[in-house]
Structures are given as structure tokens and as C-alpha cells.
Write a structure and sequence with these properties.
This protein has two domains: about 1-50 and about 80-150 and about 190-295 and about 400-405 and about 470-530, FAD/NAD(P)-binding domain; about 150-185 and about 295-385 and about 410-465, 2-Layer Sandwich (Cholesterol Oxidase, domain 2), CATH 3.30.410. The protein is about 25% helix and about 20% strand. The chain has 14 helices and 25 strands. Strands 1, 2, 10, 11, 12, 13 and 25 form a seven-stranded mixed sheet that branches. The protein has a six-stranded antiparallel sheet with strand order 7-18-19-20-17-23. A two-stranded antiparallel sheet has the order 3-4. The longest helix is centred in the C-terminal third of the chain and has 17 residues, at about 415-430.
Length: about 525
């Protein structure tokens, strides 16, 4: 890392999944880059051990956002953790490597994002990837992003896969290949039993180059603009002192779907009514900033195991000592587990395209707002992949230190509720198949009864549905009146500024969002360097 200067060729705001990729690509091209990250370095042991990521949630390495309360969720607010450390989401997520479906990207192109068709993004996914097992038309082996198979396979994860096949769903050993449909073990962004975040891969490759400066504990307040051109950034350091830095070429905003629109609005870029309501003078009116908020919701069904075989208690006493003794010398054993080891993608409508994803956890999980159910068990979590509900993110103060307000509007579209009911029915059928019945004593929730009404399932959804932590869409790409960036990720009407994170997705991809965010960052670097 070089000394802090006042001017750089490029300033990257946010050292997360996208920011580390952009920094890598620009640095390798010989460009002078300043990377600003609000949180600390990724130097916690719990970041790098796959199974301990839950220990990071709620620490200084995450933001804990809260949505407004929602009548569709029985008046509940939801908690939406986001990464706040080098590597961002890739340093605190469950490491599942999923790209989504070809149709997702073709739909982006049809919506006004020319050049984002599947045929254009697949080569970028391949270029980024370093897959330990797969090398074919869909997979690469030379990229910076390490992708590997599960080193640990929990008996409950295996039981789910067998039971799902007994229920009639095909086995799939590559959800990123020719077809996404089926059940199996997820490939993950891990390497040699350790997390392979973009900080541990992309950023590690360039962090010691003389043309790279990395500042942690740098909280961006606003962009500096002259005549609708971004010329620099104002941030606060650890001592709460405001510092201005300047860019010769471009600023790239990679702060995520909740922070990127916030920074824009505090810079005077956004909906006129929002800016004026907090006494910020509009520099550029862009109505789409903060709009189009989307996220994946999932709903758990819980099964009690007959024997004490779940993950419960594995971090205590002699079991913890045994797991540590396996992990630290050999990088093997339970601590290499990403916890979300198995799952799958199922078409619940018969239309030929999976619309439900399963995340299976070999323990009874709660969420950020409630404790887990006591005892040993399994959580099978169906998630609806393409929700139609849309929310909004706004600022409520002209003080950048105040949090945004998130009106998520989850389940405001009845079709989203219907899809989650279908997912629950599939999960309840799977848990009653022979391979699960052999080890599951009973279903705890939504009901131990085999037959339940749709109304009972909907009540369960409204009481327990939770986010999968995939917020996207708040600075969407396109050419319509609500688009914030064009197909090369330049902000409409503003020079010297691009946005490169999940906020630019016009619609959610059919799966986990980290791999697509890395692909977006790779493409953004291509656009800049071209």
C-alpha cells in the first residue's frame, strides 16, 4: 500500500465483493487506485473459517440494516445484514456459488440493458472463475475467484438430497452448468478449506502494489461535483475528521444496494422530493435512485431429529476442541463446512424454469430477530427466486451518519405469497420421504400434521419469512426514466461516475447474488479500460 495522496486516477468506494474486483483489474492495468472501505480489514479468524461466518454477523464487520415494519409480515421489521469489511458480502456470506439462469440476463437485455445477454456474461463468469473440478463450456480454471466442492458433507445435508430424489427431483452436480434444475451439494467460494472472498483472492493479488492505496475505516460522506462531473470524494477517517480526495478519471461506487443510493442522495443525486424533504439541493434529479428495491425471502420448515446429530453444540466443550484439532493443522472436518451445504432449484409451476431455491441447514436456525428452536434438527428453507414486490430506500436526514429508511414492501404482490406456499408444500413433501423419515422424528413447524390448509401455510409465512440478504436494484441499469446507470454502468447525466454492485441489477437473478456481483465488476473494469 502506498502513501495517502490527494489525487488518484480512480477512486473506488466500497471494498466489498465488487470493489476488490475493480481494484484488482485497474491495478493490474497499471492504473493508480484508491480503495475506500468503511469497515475494518478482513483480519478476523471467524471470517476465514467457513463454518464460523455466523460469528461475524452483528460485529463491526457488518452493517445491521432494519426495514420498516410491514403489514404483510404481521407488522414485523426485517433485519438485513450487509458486509462492512474488506471483501464485503463475500467475507460474511455463506459462500454459495450460483450465477442464476440464462433467462435472467436475457431479460435484462430485453429491458433496455443492451449487451447483457447470457452469451455476453457467460464468458465473463468463466474468466473470473478458478474451479477446482469443472472445466468445460460453462466453467473456467484460470480466474482469481476460487470455486470448490464441499469438503464436509453433513448426514442431514445428504439425507435432504436423497429424500428430494425420492420425491421425484433429479440430482444435479453443477447448478451453474447446462441446467440449474435439481438437487445436490453447492459449489462454494472456498479454497483449501478456507473462505475465498474477493479480499482473499482479487485484492490479495494487488494490495502491495505501489499504485494501490487501501484505506479502511473510511466512511464516505458524499461525492464532490463540479458542473455535473464527479471530481472527488469526501470521507471521514477513524478520528471522525473529514478528508477530501480527488480523481483524475473516474469514481466507481461499489457500496452495495443500500449504501450506494444513500451516497448518491447525500451528493444531491436522486428523486427531487426526497432531496428537498431533507434540505439537500438537487444537483441531478434521477427519480430511480433508491427505487426498485428487491430481495429474496425464504421460509423455514423445521424437523426434529431422532438422534442428536445436528450442528447444535459443535462449538462447545470437547466437540469444539476436536473440530479445532481437525481444522487448524489440516483444514479438514466440520469447520470447513459452509453450513448451507446442500439445496437445489425446483420448478414449482411446470413452466420449465426453476422458481424455488432451497437452502438446507443441518441445524434448527433462527434469524437476526429470534432465537432458534431448542434441540437438534434440520431447517429446509424454500426461497422464491423472482419476486414481483418492489420497495424503496430513502434518506430521512441530510446527515450522512444517519441510516437509510428501507420500505421493503415484501409480499405486497399476491403472486409472491402463492410461490412461497408452493415452496413450503414441496419442502413438507421432501421431509416426509423415506430418507428423511428415517432420521426425522417429526416436523415442528409449520405443523406436525401432514395435511394443512393454504391459510395455515400463509400464516406461517407471514410470521416467520426472512430475507436471504440479497438486496438489489436500487440504482438500476437501463435507459428508461427510472434507470440510474446506462449499460456501461455510467450514471445518467453525471460524468466521471459509475456504479458497480448489486444495486444496478434491473431484476433479481435466480439465485445467490455474490457471483453475479463479481461478474458485474469484471464487466465494469472492461468498460473502464476500453
Amino acid at each position: 500500500m502506498s502513501n495517502i495522496k490527494k489525487q488518484y486516477e480512480y477512486i473506488v468506494i466500497g471494498g466489498g465483493s465488487a470493489g476488490c474486483v475493480i481494484t484488482n483489474r485497474l491495478a493490474k492495468a497499471g492504473k493508480q487506485v484508491l480503495l475506500l472501505e468503511e469497515g475494518p480489514a478482513d483480519n478476523s479468524i471467524f471470517v476465514h473459517i467457513p463454518a464460523t461466518f455466523i460469528r461475524v454477523i452483528g460485529t463491526e464487520r457488518t452493517f445491521i440494516y432494519r426495514s420498516k415494519t410491514s403489514p404483510e409480515l404481521n407488522g414485523r421489521a426485517t433485519t438485513i445484514p450487509q458486509g462492512r469489511t474488506l471483501g464485503g458480502g463475500s467475507s460474511v456470506n455463506a459462500m454459495v456459488y450460483i450465477r442464476g439462469q440464462a433467462e435472467d440476463y436475457n431479460d435484462w437485455a430485453k429491458s433496455g440493458c443492451a449487451g447483457w445477454e447470457w452469451e455476453n456474461v457467460l464468458p465473463v463468469f468463466k474468466r473470473a472463475e478458478n474451479n477446482e473440478r469443472l472445466a468445460n463450456d460453462y466453467h473456467g480454471t484460470q480466474g482469481s475467484l476460487k470455486v470448490s466442492d464441499a469438503k464436509h458433507k453433513h448426514p442431514l445435508s445428504l439425507a435432504f438430497i436423497r429424500a428430494a430424489q425420492e420425491a421425484g427431483y433429479a440430482h444435479n452436480d453443477d447448478f451453474n452448468g447446462e441446467s440449474q434444475a435439481g438437487v445436490g451439494f453447492y459449489q462454494t467460494t472456498t479454497v483449501n478449506g478456507k473462505r475465498g472472498s474477493t479480499a482473499a483472492t482479487y485484492l490479495a493479488e494487488v494490495k502491495n502494489l505501489p499504485n494501490v492505496t487501501i484505506l479502511t475505516h473510511a466512511k464516505v460522506q458524499r461525492l464532490l461535483l463540479t458542473d455535473n462531473k464527479v471530481t472527488g470524494v469526501v470521507y471521514k477517517n477513524k478520528e471522525n475528521t473529514e478528508i477530501s480526495v480527488f480523481s483524475k478519471n473516474e469514481v466507481i461506487l461499489t457500496a452495495g444496494a443500500l449504501a450506494s443510493p444513500k451516497i448518491l442522495m447525500h451528493s444531491g443525486i436522486g428523486p427531487e422530493n426526497v432531496l428537498k424533504s431533507v434540505n439537500i439541493d438537487p444537483v441531478k434529479i434521477l427519480d430511480g435512485v433508491g427505487k426498485n428495491y428487491q430481495d429474496h425471502l425464504e421460509i423455514s420448515i423445521y424437523g426434529r431429529t431422532k438422534a442428536p446429530i445436528s450442528l447444535l453444540g459443535q462449538d462447545k466443550g470437547l466437540k469444539a476442541i476436536k473440530n479445532g484439532a481437525q481444522y487448524f493443522p489440516f483444514h479438514s472436518g466440520l469447520l470447513t463446512s459452509t453450513v448451507v451445504e446442500s439445496g437445489g432449484f425446483i420448478d414449482s409451476t411446470g413452466e420449465g424454469r426453476p422458481d424455488i431455491q432451497f437452502h438446507v441447514l443441518p441445524t434448527l436456525v433462527g434469524d437476526a430477530d429470534r432465537e432458534p428452536i431448542d434441540g437438534h434438527g434440520i431447517s429446509i428453507n424454500p426461497c422464491f427466486l423472482r419476486p414481483k414486490s418492489r420497495g424503496e430506500v430513502v434518506i430521512t436526514s441530510n446527515n450522512p451518519d444517519e441510516p437509510v429508511e428501507i420500505d421493503a414492501r415484501y409480499l405486497t404482490e399476491p403472486s409472491d405469497v402463492d410461490a412461497m406456499v408452493r415452496g413450503l408444500k414441496i419442502a413438507r413433501n421432501i421431509i416426509r420421504q423415506p430418507s428423511m423419515s428415517a432420521i426425522i422424528e417429526q416436523e415442528l413447524l409449520p405443523s406436525s400434521k401432514k395435511e394443512v390448509s393454504d391459510d395455515e401455510l400463509i400464516a406461517h409465512i407471514r410470521k416467520y419469512a426472512k430475507t436471504v440478504y440479497h438486496p438489489v436494484g436500487t440504482c438500476k441499469m437501463g435507459m428508461d426514466d427510472n434507470a440510474v446507470v446506462d449499460p456501461t454502468l455510467r450514471v445518467h447525466g453525471i460524468k466521471g461516475l459509475r456504479i458497480c454492485d448489486a444495486s444496478i441489477m434491473p431484476s433479481l437473478v435466480s439465485g445467490n447474488t455474490n457471483a453475479p456481483t463479481i461478474m458485474i465488476a469484471e464487466r465494469c473494469a472492461d468498460f473502464i479500460l476500453a
